Amino acid sequence: KQTIHVIGGGLAGTEAAWQIASVGISVVLWEMRPNRFGGAHHTEHLAELVCSNSFGAMASDRAAGLLHEELRQLNSIVISKADEHAVPAGGALAVDRGQFSQDLTQTLAQHPLIELRREALRVIPEGIVVLATGPLTSPELAEDLRRFTGMEYLSFFDAASPIIVGESINHDIAFLASRYDKGEAAYLNCPMNKEQYLQFWQELRTAEQVELKDFERETAKFFEACLPIEELARRGEDTMRYGPLKPVGLSDSRTGERPYAVIQLRQEDKAGQLWNMVGFQTNLRWGEQKRIFQMIPGLENAEFVRLGVMHRNTFLNAPVLMQPSLQFINRPTLLAAGQIIGTEGYTAAAAGGWLAGTNAARLALGKEPLTLPKTTMMGSLFEFISSASPKHFQPMPPNFGIFPELGQKIKNKQERYGRYRDRALADLKELINSVQQ
Ligand code: FAD
To answer: What is the ipTM of this complex?
Structure first.
């Protein structure tokens, strides 16, 4: 049996290497730390948590909690160690970060089939490979990856606008239209009068920002064309009205009038359950984003699947390149997982590592790679990243907005999420049983 190479010992690579070794296949796990650091990591341990120590909400009728539960069912090493080193965090699965990654490092190091090599790979090796080098992939490897994928399919900076759950938008206020009525009405438009605009503008100018890290400030310089919304606000009272908030070509069909300013929301998924705030890339703190963006008429009760960010983030245009099995379309023996394929967050990275590792092992054993049911949190996420619109592709965290709908409409959100959970766990069980047979 051939040895599989896993590049990157972060959340995704650690899980992938463990899953491969667990079925009796030898793995070389390449990790560049401590010889080289990407700018956010501080230790030499595997699966280091670069910022928060939380894996998200624990309840299984919440998106993160369901993902935890699916990973438990699949014998994920990352989640089992997270459970073991959990600390009290009021409903969230948070861990003692030191113990968590030290334990994972030791556990992997002791596995006879896992060889840990502390070296930065510069080129993608031949054979069966799992790429899991994360948001701060080393520049040489990123260059090699770019040669393989094509220049335009690898981004180094994530300037993402918030994404909102469709049903939390007030459709009595937001209206569907395209500018100058061109083509199909494709945008939801949140209209503002002058008073509302000025108040919004004032709040944006003075809102609290996230402190950029040095390496992020460096990268941000290259993105003059993609300014944060608060920076536009600071440049003058009307700058936003000549930019993303311009009202030209839009009239509210209910009043027949052109609003003073308009915030446009663009559909993010095929089913129209997720909407992206056009031009709202931002460095504002998350609490500030919620407070200020909920001032927008129509978004009073907006539920955010993802808030805006602007940071260094190496990620591929997965919809063009990847299959839902996490194999590359052009080279099925190369698989990838984690932040580099545009899934967002620690747990999603572990989930990708599980599937990419499992499928790498299946390839080595001459078995068909798995695709997970779309009704599971893992399956829906990998389906999304491999089939979203490539033009506006942005990293996506796990969420219920990308789930296929239930057969019947259930108005109560918590009840609906509970039903999603039941369906997901039942379908996953069926898959596990069929694989074990
Ligand atoms: P990583 O965990 O980063 O692992 C990738 C590994 O690959 C690293 O260990 C790196 O050293 C190694 N590597 C890179 N290039 C090479 C190479 N050429 N050869 C060998 N090894 C290499 N997510 C959250 O859920 N919560 C947060 O609070 C959070 N905060 C973040 C803060 C910052 C500043 C950044 C950049 C990201 C943050 N994220 C956060 C996203 C986070 O990075 C991911 O959730 C998670 O770490 C992704 O896992 P991964 O395995 O894809 O990448």
So the answer is: 0.98
∠ CA 373-69-405, rounded to 5°: 40
Q: Give the side-chain half-sphere CA count within 13 A for 325.
A: 18
Cα 424–chain centre separation: 20
134: phi > 0 → left, psi -120 to 50 → alpha, else beta; which?
A: left
Q: Is the CB of 93 under 6 A from ligand 1?
A: no
Write down the pTM of the prediction: 0.90
Q: What is the pLDDT of residues 91-117, one digit of tens each?
A: 999 999 999 999 999 999 999 999 999
Nearest residue (by CA) to ligand 1, atom 36, is: 135
Say if residue 356's pLDDT is above 90. yes
Looking at ligand 1, which atom is closest to the CA of residue 340?
A: 52
pLDDT confidence of residue 181: 80
* Rounded-to-10 torsion of CA 384, 385, 386, 389: 80
Is the distance from the beta carbon of residue 397 to the nearest atom of ligand 1 less than 6 Å?
no
- Which residue(s) pair with 87 in the sheet? 94
Write the DSSP symbol of residue 99.
Answer: H
Q: What are phi and psi of 56, to 5 degrees?
A: 95, 180
Phi-psi region for residue 321, left (φ > 0), alpha (ψ -120 to 50) or beta? alpha
CA distance 361 to 185: 46
How large a percentage of the chain has pLDDT more than 70?
A: 97
Radius of gyration for the chain, computed over Cα atoms and rounded to the nearest angstrom: 22
392-412 mean pLDDT: 90
- Mean pLDDT for all residues in the chain: 92
Return the half-sphere exposure (C-beta side, CA atoms, 13 A cut-off) of residue 326.
38
Q: Which atom of ligand 1 is the closest one to the Cα of 338?
A: 52
Which residues lie below 8 Å from residue 9, measured CB to CB, with a gap of 6+?
Answer: 17, 29, 30, 31, 33, 46, 47, 108, 116
Whose C-alpha lies nearest to ligand 1, atom 40?
A: 345
The pLDDT tens digits of the residues spanning 263-304 come to: 999 988 877 889 999 999 998 998 999 999 999 999 999 999
Q: What is the pLDDT of residue 63?
A: 96
The answer to whether 201 touches 28, Cβ cutoff 8 Å, is: no
Which atom of ligand 1 is found nearest the CA of 120? Answer: 19
Check if the beta carbon of residue 144 is closer than 8 Å to that of residue 124.
Answer: yes
Token output for 15? 């899980």
Query: At residue 218, does pLDDT exceed 60?
Result: no
Distance from Cα 127 to the centre of ligand 1, integer Å: 24
